[in-house]
């Protein structure tokens, strides 16, 4: 039996976990800062941010609107212009704690729900022991911290991360590699690279935003899957966060998706949901899921 499976939050230091609405605000601020840094184009206004990149990119999204009360008049028009002038489908992520008048305004304007995302939370007190055991359980596995100042280390990480997310048969583009490399430039961002017998196998990021950390961007190359590497990398990132002073961590996943199922097995518990809404229109390119 997995020793970390289904560990209730109360069993590992619930006092370190803020209220869900505060975690929602922390997550929205972190997302806004990350998009502003990584996306080629972004604008901040009305307490949120809109960002865009090439057609179909996951960076084409607006976040942070409506968490601090009513959204100012004209905000929705600015959001739709930002995307439609670039022939992109307007896309807005809405926290469960967003102002309900904002949610209704999006619906009235023709936005429809495309998907949901769950934010899960876990305290970090036991992460060190579990990480060591998980790494030792995979033959030949080593996990290293990517040296931001070493171009070779950054490139190995970026190529592994991008390849793990690439569609079958399509190699990562220079744009993909650039996005993953830029992610490391943000303060508090730590990337880990896993190798099996010296060969890159998995890459992932933990981002420190005291008092918490966020796990994202984890990929495992197809030839190394189903060996326990994802579990080892999840726990290794949690242990890094713990050693740097974080008291809890978050991770975001499709409801009951592989990320959520794996996260629950190592002690994460769902905290709240976010809805992803978009307004379709002729000639507008949606995000490629």
Kindly describe this structure:
The chain is an alpha+beta fold and 289 residues long. It has two domains: 16-118, no CATH class; 125-246, Gcn5-related N-acetyltransferase (GNAT) (Aminopeptidase), CATH 3.40.630.30. Helix content is 33%, strand content 27%. It contains eight helices and eleven strands. The protein has helices at residues 20-38, 75-84, 100-108, 127-136, 151-165, 174-183, 229-243, 258-265; strands at residues 41-45, 48-52, 61-63, 91-95, 112-123, 141-145, 189-196, 199-209, 212-220, 248-253, 269-278. An eight-stranded mixed sheet has the order 4-11-5-10-9-8-7-6, sandwiched between helices. Helix 4 runs antiparallel to helix 7 and helix 5 (151-165) crosses helix 6 (174-183). The longest helix is centred in the N-terminal third of the chain and has 19 residues, at 20-38. It is globular and about 55 Å long. The protein starts with 19 loop residues before the first helix and ends in an 11-residue tail after the last strand. Residues 1-15 have low confidence and may be disordered.
């Amino acid at each position: 039996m997995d020793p970390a499976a289904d560990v209730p939050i109360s069993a590992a230091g619930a006092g370190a976990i803020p209220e869900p609405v505060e975690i929602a605000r922390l997550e929205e601020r972190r997302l806004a800062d990350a998009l502003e840094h990584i996306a080629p184009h972004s604008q901040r206004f009305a307490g949120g941010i809109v960002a865009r990149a090439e057609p179909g990119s996951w960076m084409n999204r607006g976040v942070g609107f409506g968490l601090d009360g009513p959204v100012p008049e004209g905000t929705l028009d600015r959001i739709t212009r930002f995307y439609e002038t670039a022939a992109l489908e307007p896309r807005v992520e809405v926290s469960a704690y967003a102002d309900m008048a904002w949610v209704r305004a999006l619906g009235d304007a023709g936005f429809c729900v495309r998907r949901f995302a769950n934010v899960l939370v876990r305290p970090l007190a036991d992460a060190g022991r579990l990480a060591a055991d998980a790494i030792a359980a995979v033959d030949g596995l080593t996990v290293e911290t990517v040296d931001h100042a070493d171009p070779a280390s950054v490139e190995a990480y970026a190529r592994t991360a991008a390849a793990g997310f690439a569609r079958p048969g399509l190699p990562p583009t220079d744009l993909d590699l650039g996005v993953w490399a830029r992610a490391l430039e943000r303060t508090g961002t730590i990337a880990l690279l896993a190798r099996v017998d010296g060969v890159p196998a998995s890459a992932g990021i933990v981002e420190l935003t005291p008092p918490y950390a966020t796990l994202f961007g984890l990929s495992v190359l197809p030839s190394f899957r189903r060996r326990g590497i994802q579990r080892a990398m999840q726990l290794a990132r949690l242990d890094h966060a713990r050693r740097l002073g974080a008291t809890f961590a978050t991770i975001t996943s499709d409801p009951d998706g592989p990320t959520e199922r794996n996260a629950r097995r190592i002690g994460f518990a769902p905290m709240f949901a976010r809805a992803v809404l978009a307004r379709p229109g002729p000639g507008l390119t949606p995000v490629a899921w």
